[in-house]
Amino acid sequence: MNFNFHDLALLAPENFLLGATCVILLVDLFLKPAQRAITHWLSLSAVIGSMLLIVVDDDPATNAFGGTFLHDGVAAVLKIFILGVTAAVFVYARGYLRDRNLFVGEYYLLCLFATLGMMLLVSAGSLVMVYLGLELFALSTYALVAINRDSGIASEAAMKYFVLGALASGLLLYGMSMIYGATHALDLAAIHRVATSTAHPNLLAFGVVFLVVGIGFKFGAVPFHMWLPDVYEGSPTAVTIFIGSAPKIAAFGMAYRLLEGGVGGWSPHWSQMLAALAAASLVIGNVVAIAQTNLKRMLAYSTISHVGFLLLGLANGTPAGYAAAAFYAIAYAIMTTAAFGAILLLARAGFEAEEIEDFKGLNQRNPWYAFIVLLIMASLAGIPPLFGFFAKLLVLKAALDAGMLWLAMVAIVLAIVGAFYYLRVIKVMYFDAPADPAALALPRDLPLRWLLSVNGAALLVLGVFWGPLIAWCYRAFGLPS
Amino acid sequence: MMASLLSLLIWLPILGGALVALAGARADLARWLALAISILVFVVSIPLFTGYDASAGTLQFVENAPWITAIGANYHLGVDGISIALILLTTLTTVLVVLGAWDSVRDKVGQYLAAFLVLEGLMIGVFAAMDALLFYVFFEGMLIPMFIIIGVWGGPRRVYATLKFFLYTFFGSIFMLVGLIYLYLHAHSWELSSFAALPLGATEQAWLFFAFLLGFAIKVPMWPVHTWLPDAHVEAPTGGSVILAAIMLKIGGYGFIRFSLPIVPDACQEFAWLIVALSLIAVIYVGFVALVQEDMKKLIAYSSVSHMGFVTLGVFISLALVRNGGNRDAAYLGVSGAMVQMISHGFVSGALFSGVGVLYDRVHSRMIKDYGGVVNTMPWFAAFWVLFSMANCGLPGTSGFVGEFMVILASFAMSPLVAAGAALTLIIGAAYTLWLVKRVIFGEVANDHVKHLKDIDAREALVLGAFAAGVLVIGVWPAPLTHLMDASIRQIVDHLLVVKA
Q1: What pLDDT does B486 receive?
Q2: Alpha helix (H) ranges present in B236-327?
Q3: What is the ipTM of this complex?
């Protein structure tokens, strides 16, 4: 492998983010707690700067470092949204962190490192790179969950997340080693070439199973979902919003790289497994979400059901399916950020606003934010003309095109079940009388309020004028748009 | 201006609704603003009628722009005679709903009126969309404002009713979505015209037929999936009931004519007996159910189900007629009868629900037993109410007669037995409607509430008068309406002869 500077230039966004993170790490050491806002703005600039570097990047090279790092349209789309969502998370989280004495440099640094891990993950061209990116991301988030170390529930969630996450990483690594044994290659493109003609199909088959398990865990697909509700509920909301949003885009990227890029020739096999995971996730996620009274927990189960939809696209094994799944992941990340953003908006010092009941009568107290939450919930439920509907539409179209009629039917029936619990949030906001009829005292955090308004309205506007975005996803996967 | 008339009709009320919502804090401003916008929309919709070349029966006022290029969906709008009739009904009814809510809605007025304006835009979109995906977006988009309307301003059991309404409709339409995606994958386009031109095998058609049936039968609603309607009507505020009965139910009938007939004609023929049977059950059995209701709104709701049975009957007997023996004239009569019945029922049911609203504003009860002898204290109201009741029974000279007569006439060509079943409704309809009139309007003054009733004021008279004008004009002189739809319906009937399988 020859080292050259052009390769480094292809990694400019990652290099920039890494450099900026190191600088922030140092700068933060010399800041007084009152100056912590500097860390906030620096982190935000680092993320946005990295994003801009991707936007302006028009280098036609397809990979760097001999194929370990892929530089293609898919990576660009996914990274732009990973960074964009992370930037939004920083804005949403600030007030919440300050109110709870969690406004510390560690939060930003861990998020930045996790973001870097996600970027490497979606660009990974070899098994080593996948693992590297994954662990960088995972170790940062384990620590993030426990950032409020005095909270028992957060420590428990972190412990659970760590133990199960380590187990999943181990399984993934085990699968990778089998694939390496069967194909004698670490490079995903090389694996792709020899996977169908390997002398050890059984070994490879086992490897694929372990890969799917590892991917299923990272997504939180049933039956590997056990960590998800506890982590969502146990983490401070400022951390949940991070864990719940961008990582799903990265998980899609990882699945795409490993399954399509690596063992694409085995798609009839892993497609079956993903279909089963999808069906199980749809059923468990939607049905259990109905029983939740805690909004964060409800959103956790709703995540599981959305993962089911996403896997439905992925299970296709066709470019249209991948494009649909990528679009779904992006839509999901945007919607979830907004949903947790709404919780952060209502949260105050000493009040978490994470029970569904806490949204009671929001329409009377603040009609605008009630409307925004209405848009978010309707979008999550997949009601047109909102963003979420089009994400579901693309996935269903891809599934029907691939002849997965039964799975599409399962998805549809459960979408109706899903509509119920999202409607319940709307019901609580609009139909119930508020516990405290006084107008809502909103935090003076203007960026948060503006961003939430824009984010919610975007679900409507992107729903109506989303053509360019989906065309972009289609182009990235080499489809006509 | 004329080139984008339909877009204007769709987006003007939606943006106007946003404006009204922003003015929400000042109730009077919101009311006047909403009234101005709704009247403006109505005025803008009139050129559809005057500018439409009815002799051609083709799509006019067409707009076509790429919308989502990646999956080939277009922003394709266009109207024929059928759509125009329904759009005019929508714009007129919305004005009347805004007027009707003037005094009776006091809580969150801005949001209430905004919801109706948004709903208006979406409903016009449904009638104007010629792209299946666009249609679906409008079709489903309506659910949210209606969900809010019933849930926020509704009666005591509003949460149950509105959830039931939402989930029922969502359930039906999402299966329709699968059907539409299936068609898209084969036609490589979302255009309704390319769906209609697509050759489909008998099994495919059967599946698609049931997908559409689920979507539209729940909307109409047909027996046995009608149970959401009485609940929704009873709990909805007056305006919600009016829009629901006058327009949203029509979308089901419109869907059958626009989707089922042209896209899966062979399956429609094969299963016409099923729809005819369900329609007759709706007409007769639900008519009997209406007879025993004690709540006025519930009675009118069941009466709506029964009257909408005529619509589905008219649409589907036409198929049997034209396919077995090529009786095109009778088939044409069936579909036109269904359309006239839809427009007429829009006026009649809208008027009856507005009338119940008038009484409810005064007495705060919808129970028949709380009334009696209203004619003594509210003579003007009683006159209107009796007129609408007569129209509801299908008395000649009112709009109710025209549609029902045409459908019965058409069903004679199919089988006298079906015609006899359908004609029974005239008796049952007269029974429950006249009995309602007797118990509410006539007789001695029943209680103190009735004794202290004040007759309708000018605003209410205007609302009821507008409905009455519609009922009478269509009843006495339906020619402009039938002429408007004539060529479009003939095209649909001609297309029924195309065998796809």
Answers
A1: 84
A2: 238-243, 249-255, 261-263, 265-270, 272-291, 296-323
A3: 0.88
Nearest to A236 by CA among A345, A301, A153: A153
The packing angle between helices A152-183 and A188-195, to 10°, is 50
How far apart (Å, rounded) are the C-alpha atoms in residues A296 and B35? 42
Average pLDDT over residues A44-49: 94
Distance from C-alpha of B49 to C-alpha of B45, rounded to nearest angstrom: 7
Nearest to A422 by CA among A370, A369, A376, A362: A376
**CA–CA dist B196, A20 (Å, integer):** 59
Q: Å from B141 to nearest chain A CA? A: 5
* Rounded Cα–Cα distance for residues A165 and A220 (Å): 11
Q: How far apart are CA A383 and CA A431, in angstroms?
A: 20
**How far is CA A117 from each of CA A91, A238, B449, rounded to the nearest angstrom?**
21, 19, 74
Q: How far apart are CA A450 and CA A91, in angstroms?
A: 10
Residue A17 to residue A135: CA distance in whole angstroms:
17
- The CA-atom distances, in angstroms, between A264 and each of A33, A72, A202, A271, A314 are 51, 17, 16, 10, 12
A256-302 residue pLDDT tens: 988 888 887 788 888 888 889 999 999 998 999 888 888 889 999 99
Which run of H or of E encompasses A64? strand A63-64
pLDDT in tens, B397-429: 888 888 888 888 888 888 888 888 888 888 888
Amino acid letter, residue A311: L
**How far is CA B3 from each of CA A157, B7, B64, B191, rounded to the nearest angstrom?**
60, 9, 10, 20
Span B96-114, pLDDT tens digits: 888 888 888 888 888 888 9
Phi/psi at A176 (nearest 5 deg)?
-60, -40
Compare all CA atoms of chain A with the CA of B141 and give the residue at the minimum distance.
A384
Of A397, A400, A416, which has the smallest distance from its Cβ to B71's Cβ? A397
Sorting pLDDT into bands at 50, 70 and 90, what band is A481?
low
Query: How many angstroms away from the CA of A420 is the closest CA of chain B?
Result: 7
> In Å, how far from its chain's centre is CA A2?
34
Please give the residue of chain A at the shortest CA–CA distance from B136.
A384
> How far is B89 from B46, CA to CA, in rounded Å?
11
Query: Which residue in B307, B272, B342, B323 sits closest to B496, CA to CA?
Result: B323
What are the backbone angles phi and psi of residue A360, rounded to the nearest 5°? -50, 130
The shortest CB-CB distance from B170 to any of A385, A400, A419 is to: A419
Q: Are strands B60-68 and A69-70 parallel, antiparallel or unpaired?
A: unpaired
Shortest Cα–Cα distance, B401 to chain A (Å) = 38
Structure tokens of A362? 């929001």
Determine the Cα–Cα distance for residues B55 and B208; give it in Å rounded to an integer.
32
Distance CA B259, CA B214 (A): 13
For residue A172, which amino acid is it? L
List helix spans (H) across A30-72: 36-56
Chain A residues close to B178, C-beta within 8 Å: 396, 400, 408-409, 412
**Contact predicate A239/A146, CB 8 Å:** no
Q: Which residue of B has its CA nearest to A466?
A: B68
CA distances to B149, B285, B314, B382, B439 from B352, rounded to whole Å, are 19, 21, 23, 12, 15
Burial annotation A430-456 (CB, 10 A radius, 16+ → b, else e): bbbebeeeeebebbebeebbebbbebb
What are φ and ψ of residue B446, in 5° steps? -85, -35
Listed in sequence order, the residues at least 6 apart from A53 whose beta carbon sits closer than 8 Å to its beta carbon are: A12, A13, A16
Which pTM does this prediction carry?
A: 0.90
Contacts of B147 in chain A (CB under 8 A): 423, 426
pLDDT of residue A3: 67
Distance from CA of B347 to the nearest CA of A (A): 29
Residue A374: which of B251, B111, B242, B174 has the closest Cα?
A: B111
